[in-house]
Amino acid sequence: MTLDQALVLGVLQGATEFLPVSSSGHLALAQSFAAWQGPGLLFEVVVHLGTLAAIALVMRGRLWGLVLAALSFLPGRAGAYRHSVERRWLFLIALGSVPTAVMGLLLHDAALAIHLRPPLVGGALLVTAALLVLSERMGRRSRGAEALGLADALIIGVAQGFGLIPGISRSGATVAAALWRDARGEVAVEFSILLSVPAVLGASLFEIQRNGLATLGAEVVPLLVGFGAAFVVGSLSLQALRWVVTRRKLLPFGVYCALMGAGAVLLG
User: Fold this and answer.
1) d(CA 91, CA 74)
2) Is the pLDDT higher at 157 or at 10?
3) pLDDT tens, position by position, 141-154
4) How far apart are the first and last CA of the chain?
5) Which of these, 12, 123, 207, 249, has the minimum number of CB atoms within 10 Å of its CB?
6) 104-115 tens-digit pLDDT
């Protein structure tokens, strides 16, 4: 892999990981229509780590609160975090990750099959487009972080599970599910992104275990370039996601997914 390729792929990963346009859908269409081969498992893991680093930067306040809340479970450390929102969110994130993990195992082979069929990827992009358009008017957006409960976590976790399908945007599906549950825009984005952390880590470990460490050879410099590009662009796109959701600006992304999906269906 050249440095130019690493830079472009890192930028694409950083942009599409958070913006609701389906990174897996774009990858599948690029491989089908441009006869483009994927960058390899290690590079994919590294750029995902870059987007996780972007989450750590942009959401450092909430993440630090979650760390302190986790420490509060130690004997004698509860203190002010005994009834904190962060302590509650730790449990909800763990709960929401269960349906995601189950669906990931159940849908893994089906997702790989869809990956090879552009019309099906296009159909999934059309579903994402519909979700984004509907989410503009979805819910009362009145519930804060402290109001999220067990049903919310499970529903958003199921939505994240469907994000495994190429063309279904993970961020689009989870944010739409949270808005349907009447969460405020900023709460929908925060919970969606935090719920993605164990999913991304788990998926990366699963693929490494499935494919074996022998497939992980790569040069260091392209990996660093890809990581850096995914980190910088991911930080910007995560901020952008916050802005478009809280200001109800998801419609342009819905139109984009609809055009991409229709094109894939017609050309596939």
Assistant:
1) 15
2) 157
3) 999 999 999 999 99
4) 28
5) 249
6) 889 888 888 898
Residue 66 has pLDDT above 70, yes or no: yes
Q: What is the mean pLDDT of the chain?
A: 88
Q: Which amino acid is at 263?
A: G
Instruction: Look at phi and psi of residue 168 and say left if phi exceeds 0, alpha if psi is from -120 to 50, else beta.
Output: beta
Collect contacts of 243-249 with beta carbons under 8 A, ≥24 apart.
Answer: 245/175, 245/179, 245/185, 245/186, 245/188, 245/189, 246/184, 246/185, 246/186, 246/189, 247/185, 248/136, 248/185
Q: In this structure, which long-range contacts are made by residues 216-225, counting pairs with CB atoms below 8 Å and at least 24 apart in sequence? A: 216/40, 216/41, 216/42, 217/42, 218/1, 218/40, 218/42, 218/43, 219/1, 221/3, 222/1, 222/2, 222/3, 222/5, 222/6, 222/43, 223/6, 223/42, 223/43, 223/46, 225/3, 225/6, 225/7, 225/10
